[in-house]
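$ run holo --ligand "glyoxylic acid" --emit tokens
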Amino acid sequence: MSESMSESTPLRSRRSCLAVPGSNPRFLEKAKGLDADQVFLDIEDAVAPLAKPDARKNIVAALNEGGWGGKVRVVRVNDWTTQWTYRDVIEVVEGAGANLDCIMLPKVQSAEQVVALDLLLSQIETETGLEPGRIGIEAQIENAQGLINVDAIATASPRVETIIFGPADFMASINMKSLVVGEQPPGYDVGDAYHHILMSILMAARAHDLQAIDGPYLQVRDTDAFRKVAGRSAALGFDGKWCLHPDQVAAANETFSPRQEDYDHAENILDAYDWCTSEAGGKMGAAMLGDEMIDEASRKMALVISAKGRAAGM
Ligand code: GLV
Ligand code: MG
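-- output --
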């Protein structure tokens, strides 16, 4: 395993991951023109049971029509405890596998559930002549069982690209006494009730070179509150957040990009470090950049900001 994600993995930018209900062809069309890094076309909780068959068809058509630009194209299927998962995967991947980047699996509870999806994808790829292993898996952690098993889930298949926090289902699963997703539960005034969950997901992601994505914020008209909640996971090191509304996209792109001054500073550190370790710079392991002492650890921190900035087009 590599030492630093930023040195080994060209980051696929996922600052903003826009949810689009597969049951609504108008929303599917509109999403193509929005500035989200990723779209996920939903057959799960945003789609009523009776609408799921049509949603699968709409999604296949929208993916094959194209027009998604450089967006990461993801479909969220239903979880393995329902009767819909196998049909979601078969219909979508047989119908549009060449125009699809990842399948998002919600409410993942165990490594076996990821393995089951991996096997199904492999069979479809073989049968339909798709490139083996190209379609990735995004695993959503939405309950206590999933969090306890998050490390095994992260390593269950080489297809896994992201670990996603699903706060709404998670809050319900642990009986949290709150209805406002992402906000602190009333009565809990000793810290951040989500810290342990976010950190556990982030550690599993970083330990295995995956991306960590924060879930939705439901008060879609309150962009300031969105920025605040997104800012918490961005500060910890998360790579992006879900957007449920086009208004949240710009806020997510901004929040999960480095600030311009931090990006510039990171580039300066990298240049200064290159110079000080070179023959001409005296082969030194540490040096001063203005009033700041920099060394190999500074270089690693700077690489993270620099990689995020470059992925964001800075
Ligand atoms: C998303 O699926 C959530 O449950 O928060
Ligand atoms: Mg959910």
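-- notes --
The first strand starts at residue 16 and ends at 21.
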